[in-house]
Design goal:
- It is a single chain.
- By secondary structure, the chain is mostly helical.
- Its main location: membrane.
- It is a multi-pass membrane protein.
- This is MFS transporter.
- It is found in: Cell membrane.
Length: 510
């Protein structure tokens, strides 16, 4: 073999090795962001007591993060396309670590809320940069399938892991460690990304920043997320809540109109109007509504009804994590190069719906092994199988210069879906609980019987909301099957550097 051929072979081997090293650091960063979405929930009661946060303001520890993260995601994706994905990724990690340190060291309410908002802002830089780096790094179909399988398992299972880690840290150490634990994650991921990740050349979008689009998208998304948050606490009929929803619709409609007119839009409408990507954003957002609502109900059910400790509650979610790992890294990864994506996504959402159906049987004395365990395992298996092709398709067919904003869109659909799921399903549960207690409390003579009715009312509320979640997953499956029509990726070397080459879209009559 000539020296030139040897050098070429060595460069190819080094590039292959670096891709998988890069995946390690990208996945670590994604795990940190997803963990943070749930880990603080477990620590919130202890933090509230230590910092003297009132009951009325405690929701802002969660809401401040959600508003900043959801509102700035599209802007973060555009920054990644403009500034460079690797640079944006590293900057997001460093900022997230600094904000986490501030939150862990907080001595009052204002510092805590400010730290959470900063975490959300840097998370909005980090999350789309991570997904778009994955899209432009792995272009060969089999490698791409494996990489997105791992990433999908982390994206789906990280929230449940957060419950476990949050319970352990809060119960055995201190709530502050639910913030400090992010720092080693971020430092390792940033250092690894700086030295290992090699971003393909020629993929930046150097067009001028669309300032009106930035302003309208941030205001519209923040208003929408806040409207759902307020609906949960103040009710859907509250005049301020209704006003916020109307305002968000007007702002987002103005954003879409602006994007159709400006020369260099923040969100090129071609990103969301392509049927496959549109189907992914919509079906994935609906699935997240069901999943995040369930996290909330099961956490309360296990701790308040079953009397589980925070650690035991976290461990009870392990079947979900196991199912996600198997569905994403085994089923999804092995089949994505053999069958069209919709034949993974639609059945995956339906299997998740069957798992959710198991959980509609919850009662006060429900057996964990007989109902909750199989329900969570099936839910995880289905979600993992669907998440893997969904995340891969979220950047399907986009030009490399648009991969950051396309990645931001899938994160936006998940973030808004999480806010909707928590507010919508919690409202349904609360209404059903109130109605049940009102109808049954009169027949409860003793204090013990009244407490029993209240517990039964809570469980009745949870199961009512879970029924809605079952329907939402069926709808997600229907959308995935009807919207997504791309064929299976062709096996073999990718034909180009961009994410647009990895799948060929057949013409299918419908």
């Amino acid at each position: 073999m000539s020296e030139t051929a040897q050098a070429t072979a060595k460069a190819a081997a080094d590039s292959h090795s670096n891709r998988w090293k890069a995946l390690t650091f990208i996945a670590l960063a994604q795990l940190m962001v997803v963990l943070d979405a749930t880990i603080v929930n477990i620590a919130l009661p202890s933090a509230q007591q230590d910092l003297g946060i009132s009951d009325g303001n405690r929701q802002w520890v969660i809401t401040a993060y959600a508003l900043a993260f959801g509102g700035l995601l599209l802007f973060g994706g555009r920054i990644a396309d403009l500034w460079g994905r690797k640079r944006t990724f590293v900057a997001g990690l460093i900022g997230f670590a600094a904000a986490s340190a501030l939150g862990g060291a907080a001595t009052n309410e204002a510092t805590m809320l400010g730290a959470r908002a900063l975490q959300g802002a840097f998370g909005a830089l980090l999350a789309p940069a991570a997904l778009s780096l994955l899209a432009v790094t792995f272009t060969e179909p089999k490698e791409r399938a494996k990489a997105f399988g791992i990433y999908g398992a982390i994206a789906g299972g990280g929230g449940a892991v957060g419950f476990i880690l949050g319970g352990v840290l809060t119960e055995y150490m201190d709530w502050r460690w639910t913030f400090f634990v992010n720092i080693p994650f971020a430092v390792i991921a940033a250092a690894g990304a700086y030295f290992v990740i090699r971003e393909p050349a020629g993929g930046r979008n150097r067009s001028p920043l669309d300032i009106p689009g930035v302003a309208l998208s941030i205001l519209g998304l923040v208003t929408l997320v806040y409207a759902f948050t307020r609906a949960e606490s103040d009710g859907w009929g509250d005049s301020t809540t209704v006003g916020l929803f109307v305002t968000s619709v007007v702002l987002l409609a103005a954003f879409v109109f602006t994007e159709s007119k400006v020369r260099a839009p923040l969100l090129p409408l071609r990103v969301i109007t392509e049927r496959n990507r549109g189907g992914v954003y919509l079906s994935l957002g609906l699935a997240i509504i069901a999943l995040f609502g369930l996290f909330l109900f099961l956490t309360y059910y296990m701790q308040l009804v079953k009397g589980y400790s925070p650690v035991k509650t976290g461990l009870a979610f392990l079947p979900l994590i196991g199912g996600l790992m198997v569905g994403s890294t085994q089923i999804g990864t092995r089949l994505i190069t053999r069958v069209p994506p919709r034949l993974l996504m639609a059945p995956g959402f339906l299997v998740a719906g069957i798992g959710m159906f198991f959980l509609t049987r919850l009662e006060i004395d429900t057996s964990y092994a007989g109902v909750i365990l199989p329900g969570l395992a099936l839910l995880g298996l289905g979600m993992g199988t669907a998440f893997m092709p969904a995340l891969s398709l979220s950047t399907h067919g986009v030009e490399p210069r648009d991969s950051g904003v396309a990645s931001a869109m899938v994160n936006t659909s998940q973030q808004v879906g999480g806010a909707i799921g928590t507010a919508l399903l919690n409202t349904i549960a609360a209404s059903a609980t109130t109605s049940y207690i009102k109808d049954h409390i009169a027949g409860a003579g003793s204090r013990t019987q009244q407490q029993l009715v209240q517990l039964e009312g809570q469980v009745h509320g949870y199961t009512n909301a879970i029924w809605f979640a079952v329907g939402i997953l069926v709808l997600a499956a229907t959308i995935a099957f009807t919207f997504i029509n791309t064929g299976k990726p062709e096996v073999g070397p990718a034909s180009g550097e961009g994410a647009e080459d990895e799948m060929k879209i057949p013409v299918i009559a419908h």
